């Protein structure tokens, strides 16, 4: 039960990102600062954590081995993930961005063939190329229908251009996040813990955030004090607390695929937490029955996809080992 509770807490803190980003946009803040300030403010907090654990030296040693790849995949995993998410809040409410963001579980499955998995066999460890979990993708249709229903309500209120500008950036982010993070996990190969890896990716992506900040100064001016404070809250709640809670939960159940799927499925509740936050703090109107139906379908689809995908992965691994 404890891993589930930790997963729910992580979903709650992750959801603050969508609420506060939308709040900053509604109060006149720019998505440029919402994106760049989060990682700029994350850096000192993560640096203190890693230094107190006396693991900074080993992180720097690993980063020096492949500085180019660290820069590339950190820019993909953090830059092409978070900047589009912030940009999308210009055109869509936070809860809708959170709902569309659940597409990342589908994107992660589609990216599986790009990665090699090590499996233990009677002859020792072997490497196999990942396969797309077909059964899981069938359940993904439920998620897609749910996202479509949520977006349908917005279609009457926005132009076609605005509608797509609220959707396509999130789809880009949904592919960039698992791609960048999995590539970095492959490069790290288990030598760093989660705080080291997140700090390393934050440091490696810093040139991107500095360039974006310069662009922001030239186009929209400096951030307001209100946006600066809210960005600090996002950095702590989502960048530090939520990440730590979620990885703590997954580490507890990493050897039990069914429990791991349950923990991962808790993240589908981000959309409900984001919706509640916007209703309470931003005074948005309640979604229509159509949108509620879409939200329910996204949550159900996420749960079914998690269980089905882990079942497929386990089956594939057994088949490969048997063949060897």
TrEMBL record:
InterPro entries hit by this protein: EmrE
Protein origin, superkingdom: Bacteria
Methyltransferase recorded as keyword: no
A Pfam family of this chain: EmrE
Residues that span the membrane, as ranges: 31-50, 70-90, 96-116, 136-152, 158-177, 198-217, 229-248, 269-286
Keywords: Membrane, Transmembrane, Transmembrane helix
Name used for this protein in its record: Multidrug resistance efflux transporter family protein
Organism of this sequence: Bacillus yapensis
Source taxonomy: Bacteria, Bacillati, Bacillota, Bacilli, Bacillales
